[in-house]
Amino acid sequence: MKYSAKAFLDLKGKTPVTMLTAYTTPVAKSLEQAGIPIILVGDSVGMVEMGMDSTRTVTIEHMCYHVSAVRRGAPNTHIIGDMPYNTDNNPATALKNARLLLDAGADSIKLEGPKYDVISYLRKNAVEVVGHSGLTPQTASSFKQVGKSKADAERVLEEARGIAAAGAFMLVLEHIPKELAKSITDAIPIPTIGIGAGNLCDGQVLVINDAIGMGDRWPPFSKQYAYVGKSIVEAVAQFRAEVEQRKFPE
Ligand code: KIV
């Protein structure tokens, strides 16, 4: 069963939400098989799959390509398409680009920061929106934790309130102190999904490459549930050895 935005709202305070990113068909298929209810096709694709230094060079065309690949792998899972940098600067531009993601197969879109006018315009046009506050990589000058000072914590809390009031159905909170994430979770009526924000949010999201150990550098707040990158090295080294020794094919 595919969860709607309303179904996620109804989970608040009841069942924690598990979200993972995915960018390709086979990985999306595995997530759907494992019962993950919501997949984020994040612009992190630029850094973890495309070798880019930041998410700022990801385009709407890249995102549509990956959203459609994920949809083919996970036909029955709620998919969020991430709005890349500079594609949601004003309501009309955001609506045009959000519709491209929806046409590619997304059920909802995510955008970073306090773009209240954009969120309410998208809602008026029947687009379901996920907000993203705390560390917002598209505009951050560093990947340091956000909301540590009292003033910055208040700013993030107000931003979360504004995003919920504008009509988002879910809010990603990235790299903020656990206590701040708890205050936000208590203060707003929509589910909060943490990444590096402690265990008191309404759910958790991880970048799939971090969760399965693909690559060799992971954020300190991510956990590796497997080391798939290591398994690939071992498998291909064995293949190479067998070819060189004429053991494969038998
Ligand atoms: O792009 C992404 O993968 C994200 C997550 C880190 C939440 O925004």
Question: Briefly, what is this?
Answer:
This protein has helices at 5-11, 25-33, 45-48, 60-73, 91-104, 116-124, 150-166, 178-187, 208-211, 228-244; strands spanning 17-21, 38-41, 78-82, 108-112, 129-134, 170-174, 192-195, 203-206. The chain is of the alpha/beta class.
Structure overview:
With 250 residues, the protein is an alpha/beta fold. It has a single domain, classed as Alpha-Beta Barrel (TIM Barrel). 42% of the residues lie in helices and 15% in strands. It is built from ten helices and eight strands. It has an eight-stranded parallel beta barrel with strand order 1-2-3-4-5-6-7-8, surrounded by six helices. Helix 2 crosses helix 4, helix 4 runs parallel beside helix 5 and helix 6 runs parallel beside helix 7. The mean pLDDT is 97. The protein binds 3-methyl-2-oxobutanoic acid. 3-methyl-2-oxobutanoic acid binds next to strand 6.
Strands, count: 8
- How large is the radius of gyration? 19 Å
Question: Can you identify the CATH class?
Answer: Alpha Beta
Order of helices and strands: HEHEHHEHEHEHEHEEHH
Number of domains: 1
| Averaged pLDDT | 97
CATH superfamily membership: Phosphoenolpyruvate-binding domains
Number of helices: 10
CATH topology, what is it called?
Answer: TIM Barrel
Largest sheet: 8 strands, parallel, barrel
Basic shape = globular
Q: What small molecules does this complex bind?
A: 3-methyl-2-oxobutanoic acid
Low-confidence parts lasting 5 or more residues at pLDDT below 50? none
Which band does the percent of strand residues land in?
15-25%
- Fraction in helix: 40-55%
With strands numbered from the N-terminus, the spatial order across the biggest sheet is 1-2-3-4-5-6-7-8
Name given to the CATH architecture: Alpha-Beta Barrel
Structural class: alpha/beta
Span between N and C termini? 45 Å
